[in-house]
């Protein structure tokens, strides 16, 4: 077997910055050697201070593999987060940032893997799932895809307008909930992702080949337990957890 080459650091340029939610910004990078990647993978970011202090973080790729020339990372401002604060407060278009990747080989999906697939994301956990959704759309795939997502309020729901538009293709379905306010539009629900909601989602779609769950540790643990209780076998559930 030929060994996998070590991923090298590249100096990427910030091509665009957009505000996605009150706490999350999307940073679009161009790289000297655009990496081929699979939806669900992530990139490492390295910041080095003048005194040599170094900080590294990993961020999921939000963009589709069909656009490797422009990598999008969605970065949430965290309390006391030195790297996320730097991105939100200091980084500007044209700045150069060191990136390495793509990395990760378990929490990934391509249309060649088949489906149907069920995607469940809490808060910023929707980022790698959005890469899968965009890949699915870019390939004009007929594989049924359902995305279940939740956030505190409607303005915290990442990529909501884009997800709403993608439903027009007839094979992508969005189920979105807000947990700290009343739903203001008919296509949003109020409350957490719970057993009755997941039961209804599973009943409304073909038996999923793979279920991807991404979010905080408590969110992923709760959702995975609910899926198991509803009869989804452990071998079909893939999880990725963010922080504590």
Task: Describe the protein's topology.
Blueprint: E1 9-21, E2 24-30, E3 42-48, E4 54-60, E5 71-76, H1 82-89, E6 96-103, E7 117-122, H2 126-138, E8 145-151, H3 160-166, E9 172-178, E10 188-190, H4 195-204, E11 210-216, H5 217-229, E12 237-242
Description:
The chain is α/β, with parallel strands linked by helices. The protein has 2 domains: 9-103, Translation factors (Elongation Factor Tu (Ef-tu), domain 3), CATH 2.40.30; 111-242, Rossmann fold. 21% of the residues lie in helices and 34% in strands. It contains 5 helices and 12 strands. A 6-stranded antiparallel sheet has the order 4-3-6-1-2-5, covered by helices on one side. A hairpin with a 2-residue loop joins β1 (9-21) and β2. The chain starts with 8 loop residues before the first strand and ends with a strand.
């Amino acid at each position: 077997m030929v060994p996998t080459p070590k991923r090298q650091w590249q100096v990427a340029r910030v091509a665009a910055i957009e505000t996605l939610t009150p706490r999350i910004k999307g940073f679009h990078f161009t790289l000297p050697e655009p990496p081929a990647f699979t939806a669900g993978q992530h990139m490492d970011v390295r910041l080095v201070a003048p005194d040599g202090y170094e900080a590294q973080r990993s961020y999921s790729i939000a963009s589709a593999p069909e656009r490797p020339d422009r990598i999008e990372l969605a970065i949430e401002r965290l309390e006391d987060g030195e790297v996320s604060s730097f991105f939100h407060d200091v980084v500007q278009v044209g700045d150069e940032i060191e990136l390495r990747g793509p990395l990760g080989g378990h929490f990934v999906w391509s249309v060649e893997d088949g489906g149907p697939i069920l995607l469940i994301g809490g808060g910023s956990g929707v980022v790698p799932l959005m890469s899968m959704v965009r890949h699915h759309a870019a390939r004009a795939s007929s594989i049924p895809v359902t995305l279940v997502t939740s956030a505190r309020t409607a303005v915290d729901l990442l990529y909501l307008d884009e997800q709403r538009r993608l439903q027009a293709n007839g094979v992508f379905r969005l189920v979105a909930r807000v947990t700290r306010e009343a739903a203001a539009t008919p296509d949003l629900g109020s409350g957490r992702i719970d057993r009755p909601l997941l039961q209804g989602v599973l009943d409304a779609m073909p038996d999923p080949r793979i279920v991807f769950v991404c979010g905080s540790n408590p969110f992923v643990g709760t959702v995975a337990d609910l899926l198991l209780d509803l009869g989804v076998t452990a071998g079909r559930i893939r999880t990725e957890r963010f922080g504590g």
